[in-house]
Amino acid sequence: MKFSFLTLVFLIILCGVSRAQSPPQRNPDISNKALITKSTPSINADTFKNQAADAALHKLADDYYAWRNENYPVRSSDAGLHTWDNRLTDYSPAKIVERAQHVRSLLDKVRATKTDTYPKDARIDWILFRAKLENVDFENRILKFEQTNPQVYVRECTDAIFSLLKKEYDTPRKRALAATERLKQMPALLRQGLSNLQKPVKLYARLAIQSARSIDSLLNKSLMELDVDLAPNEHDDLVKARDSALVALHGYADELEKRLPRMVDFAPMGEANYNYYLKHVLLLPFTAAEVEMIGRTELARYRALEALLPDPKLADPDPKRAAHIPPDQQSFLKAYENREAEMISFLKEHNLVTLPDYLGAFQIRQLPEAFKPTSPGGFMNPPGVYDKDPTGFYFIPTYNPESKNFYIRAAIEDPRPILGHEGIPGHFLQLSIANHLSDEIRRQHEDTVFIEGWALYGEEMLMRTGLYPNNSAAQGQILRLSRYRAARIGVDVNLHTGRWSFEQAVKYFMDAGGLDREAAEGEAAGAASEPTQKISYIIGKWQIMNLLGHYKDRQGGNFRLGQFHDDLIKNGSLPVSVIEWILLDDPTSLQQAIK
Question: Phi, psi at residue 446, to the nearest 5°?
Fold first, then answer.
């Protein structure tokens, strides 16, 4: 296509406005094959075409994010966008098909884009956006959770309310009114869910039943704390809607229980699909077999390192060794939170990472019972990508000093290893920085392998740089946490490629990972519910360690560990294969992933 002079001028202006917030650095291109090819920058028609195409890609991506946000209102609320707080997702069959077709059409358009002459930054954005769409398309084509996973509909209900409660983004009254509207829609949503579930999986159904029967405290207690400024009729409306929702949720669980004998135990995606996901979505340069090999290698290493401790029992947390056992839940939460200041001081004193001024507070809260079946250790809730409030939370299980749960025992004895993973320098810091990227495609990318890899890397990095003394409980925890994260790989790969049953996965977590039965069952359930998520920790850490070595060699005498950390996490939550291209000008891993 030819461009007139005036059109070219207009495109220059358009691109300048459209990308005014883009990162100021533009890295030089290097030669590569196929999708990654060398382009010579010059002020000519091709340059203008590339700028226009880059602007068009970002417009396409912006339109997609807007479409996604409106079509998944609960997800939007959770991410800090409260435009549709009174709505639930439409799971009617026609809408499910319409959404899938929209994503597929968009993916086909992005795939068809010719990027051979794109500058490096533009090509990276194209690859990232394509992977984002590949993820959604894979879920639609292969996983089909709306038909197979009853947790989809329970989670829609729990998240619908939880996303309105976790932050005080508006007045209690307005949040309560939004909750009322969502509660009113839940009975119909759950009826639709039962109709959609044509091929439900027994494992998923059991987890959904547990969650549905555990939601009472969320609706009866947590939700009702918003009932402070409601008019009498508004209060009555909320209570009526809440009670109807609870009846519907318990009825949903009862109906699932009746159907259990007719359900398949588990439905693995198969090795070919697993490999496709690794390459096209996660941009990993590995096959399932190679991922499993890394897991077995790391598992062997950390089991041996446990054995090499002067007292190997330190790898198994024991509250009785703690200097102080908190008397109650609130004391436990406070003690947990107080250790963060100590860790921040250590990071600053050793120049290990830069903490930005915009970083908010990091708080510890109790895990709602409805989330316990698949999150036995709790979960991190960082600031959402649209959040105005920079506060982040880590939700931990209910305190019980007699608990056999690994995470509770570890948190009582020394909370710092888990705190470093979830807070600073882990998830809270990294995701807060990612939320401030100016390139929207990169800001929206949420690569779980990098996210979890960074947090796990941080655990051992703090140990290696001297935060924990030798032969300490914290040091033992670090080794056990890496050991069972390595065990997660074997579980994830073998479950989803069809080699193992769920019970085999539980036993592997206990025997190889060193977990108690309760934690092992929760871990296996989480692995089954979120394919490939459990490989993220060790694979991401392994990739970061590999990158660290190459980075150090390149820097030579100028190497500083803190600078590496800053350079690494300033890119957001991108696949390490992409970050290697950005930091080292080495596209080898990315080539292997997308060839």
Answer: -130, 75
Take residue 321 and report the two structure tokens written for it. Answer: 């060794």
CB atoms within 10 A of CB 327: 10
547 Cβ contact list (under 8 Å, min separation 6): 568, 576, 579, 580, 583, 584
Beta bridge partners of 451: none
Query: In angstroms, rounded to a whole number, what is the distance separating the alpha carbons of residues 513 and 260?
Result: 30
What is the Cβ-side half-sphere exposure of residue 111, based on CA atoms within 13 angstroms?
12
Residue 6 scores a pLDDT above 70: no
Residue 87's contacts (CB-CB under 8 Å, 6 or more residues apart) are 73, 181, 182, 185
Contact present, 133 and 110 (Cβ < 8 Å): yes
Q: Is pTM, for the whole model, over 0.85?
A: yes
Burial-class residue 20 by CB neighbours within 10 Å (0-12, 13-18, 19+). Answer: exposed
Domain parsing of the chain, residue ranges: 5-143, 146-262, 272-582
Angstrom distance (rounded) from CA 161 to CA 327: 30
Which tokens in the block code for residue 85?
Answer: 């707080």
Residue 375: pLDDT band with limits 50, 70, 90: low
The residues, any chain, with a CB within 8 Å of residue 512's CB and separated by 6 or more, are 299, 303, 483, 487, 490
Does residue 121 surpass a pLDDT of 80? yes
Helix, strand, or coil here: 267? coil
Q: At what angle do helices 576-584 and 536-555 cross, to 10 degrees?
A: 10
Contact 164, 85 (CB under 8 A): yes
Task: Determine how many CB atoms are found less than 10 A away from the CB of residue 308.
Answer: 9
